[in-house]
Amino acid sequence: VPGARRIDVGGRVVLPGFVDAHTHLVWAGNRAHELEKRLSGATYEQIAAAGGGILGTVAETRATPADRLTELALARIDALTRGGVTAVEIKSGYGLDLDAELKILDVAARAAEDRDVEIVATFMGAHTYPRELRDSAAGRERYLDQVCEEMIPRAAGLPGVRFADVFVDDHAFGLAEAERVLAAAKGAGLGIKVHADQLSDGGAASLAAEMGAASADHLEHVSAEGLDRLAASGTVAVLIPGASLFLKMNRFARGREMIDRGVPVALATDLNPGTCPCSSLPLVIQLACLGCGLTIDEAIVAATLNAAAACGINDRCGSIEPGKRCDLVVLDAADRRELVYRLGDNPLRDVYVRGVRHVSAPARD
Ligand SMILES: [Zn+2]
């Protein structure tokens, strides 16, 4: 390859840079106090009724200027990169009105200019209903109209916005509403993704497959039928074991069964303030093996090439090949198994983003 240079890594393992296929990393505020309440037995509904939960984050994110949101987002991207992430998907969805959603997508675009990490933006105005429109059927209908008729066309015109996503859940959007959002997104030329079957089996995986989604994400409660539909459509299952743990769900997505049924499996942190404030992709890889039943090699593929496919960037990311970005992770080990064995550690020596070395651990030699 012209211009190639040789790097001596001292016999250590070199992997493709990790791809984080699902984050919500543009937000303001902090919800550590909610974690403490949940650990003391409070339910999410009680926390939301007291003004917390996602709508608390929406209020703080709306009130925060784009400059400050950009600083916060860059710090989170840098934290991900210290854990080997060289490409990341970023969803909007803490704005829930046209201006605030566009502000968040603008922050993602600024981050893409400021960092060499590959950034894919996803519009997620259909994260939940905003406080001001959620309490009546007419209000919710109006919000859906805004999402489909105003926000999606505007978002689709922005550089870097490749997908739209919708949260299908009893507390968010039903299947019919989701279908409308996804159809509008496809009509605007966007790819589609679905938050599917996280808290119960609502048939969202089947909808994602039927609509030709690039990915169906979460899937802790997906049915066997839903999995077979995903396998048939080639939709990538993005597993988020960090959220299963942080929400104390007492269950992980059935990654082993997914792979056995022919579903391509990817991994993500879900980095967000409420359900998974985790910026360590190595921890996610470890949980995918220990909780979801993946082998070490399956987890590595899930965190690289399959995650890139879930984000539509497998033409440039996810594997070490001529013609792709030179995004590399050098383990601080000569054995790839150390990545999972060193539980809770980020066992990385170096991370290369576009061929530039970001030192992530002090050199020991
Ligand atoms: Zn999410």
How would you summarize this macromolecular structure in one to three sentences?
The protein has 15 helices and twelve strands. It has helices at 32-39, 44-49, 53-62, 66-82, 98-114, 137-156, 175-187, 204-211, 224-233, 241-246, 255-260, 281-290, 296-302, 305-310, 338-341; strands spanning 14-16, 18-20, 85-91, 118-126, 161-167, 191-196, 215-218, 236-239, 265-267, 328-331, 348-353, 356-359.
Overview of the molecule:
This protein has 365 residues and is of the alpha/beta class. It is 41% helix and 16% strand. It has 15 helices and twelve strands. The protein has helices at 32-39, 44-49, 53-62, 66-82, 98-114, 137-156, 175-187, 204-211, 224-233, 241-246, 255-260, 281-290, 296-302, 305-310, 338-341, and strands at residues 14-16, 18-20, 85-91, 118-126, 161-167, 191-196, 215-218, 236-239, 265-267, 328-331, 348-353, 356-359. The strands form two sheets. An eight-stranded parallel β-sheet has the order 2-3-4-5-6-7-8-9. A four-stranded antiparallel β-sheet has the order 1-10-11-12, with no helix packed on it. Helix 6 (137-156) links the parallel strand 4 and strand 5 (161-167). Helix 4 packs across helix 5 (98-114). The longest helix is centred in the middle third of the chain and has 20 residues, at 137-156. The two termini are 29 Å apart. Zinc ion binds at residues 22, 24, 195, 270.
Please list the strands of the largest sheet in the order they lie side by side: 2-3-4-5-6-7-8-9
For the terminal residues, how far apart are their CA atoms?
29 Å
Number of helices: 15
Indicate the mean pLDDT: 95
- What is the helix fraction of residues, given as a range? 40-55%
Low-pLDDT runs of 5+ residues are: none
Element-level helix/strand string: EEHHHHEHEHEHEHEHEHHEHHHEHEE
Ligands (ions, cofactors included): zinc ion
What kind of sheet is the major sheet?
Answer: 8 strands, parallel
- Number-wise, the strands total 12
**What proportion of the residues form beta strands (DSSP E)?**
15-25%
Structural class, from secondary structure content? alpha/beta
Instruction: Kindly provide the radius of gyration, computed on alpha-carbon positions and rounded to a whole number of angstroms.
Output: 20 Å
Oligomer: single chain
Q: Estimate the global geometry from the Cα principal axes.
A: globular
